[in-house]
Amino acid sequence: MHGLADRGARHAYSGPDRVSLAVPNRYLEIRGDAEISPDDDYAFADRLGAKYNANLRDQDRPGESRVKVIIRPVRVNAIDMRT
Fold this sequence. Notes:
The chain is 16% helix and 36% strand. By secondary structure, the protein is α+β, with helices and mostly antiparallel strands. The protein has one domain. A 3-stranded antiparallel beta sheet has the order 1-2-3, with no helix packed on it. The protein is extended and about 45 Å long. The chain starts with a helix and ends with a strand.
């Protein structure tokens, strides 16, 4: 587990979310409290893979593990970089 866990999960950044291909250079910045939990049995990864018709297990190297991150938003900023 790297990244958020190494820096602490409070006020983690997640983005972009729901990027519109029709309007480039726009995204949402979501800041909030992150809850990180192991996904050792791949329950979440399998559900996510089924949604996108992908096998996420194929992406992992031997010895790697997956985590599930839930972000409880504290602040959401809409960013428009077109100007």
